[in-house]
Amino acid sequence: MYTVIFLQTDGGSTLSTMLPFLLMFVVIYFFMIRPQMKRQKNEKKFQSSIAKGNKVITTSGIHGKIVDIVDSDNTVIIETGAGKIKFERSAISMELSKKLQAPKEKK
Fold first, then answer.
1. Cys-Cys crosslink for 80: which of 20, 34, 64, 107, Cβ 3.0 to 4.6 Å?
2. How many Å apart are CA 81 and CA 31, to the nearest integer?
3. How many CB atoms neighbour CB 66 within 10 A?
């Protein structure tokens, strides 16, 4: 003869098992997802604000001055010491004048 035992669980136990997963998601959101979204927003804002004549640095480290902006294919033409080079707008990492104006750290 077999005896069947039914275990009753209250509603609080399911919440207590889900709580670590919810907390993990909140931590991941605030430490990884939210800062990345903010960084992307600032980068998009910077890329839309570049203009002719700005001195910039590309992600590959090339310094130059923006000569022309081509909106149809989302590129810019940068004049460097070696000549003119065409880059994607997303390849521009920062404006050189902003880097030069940044306060220097004291040692």
1. 64
2. 41
3. 19
Distance CA 57, CA 6 (A): 69
Six token digits for residue 67: 């000569």
Residue 58 pLDDT > 70: yes
Rounded CA-CA distance 43/94 in Å is 9
- The residues near 78 (Cβ < 8 Å, ≥ 6 apart) are 56, 58, 62, 64, 65, 66, 67, 84, 85, 86, 87
**Could you give the CA distance from residue 21 to residue 35 in angstroms, rounded to a whole number?**
21
Strands, sheet with 75-80, edge to edge from the N-terminal-most edge strand: 83-88, 75-80, 63-70, 55-58, 92-95
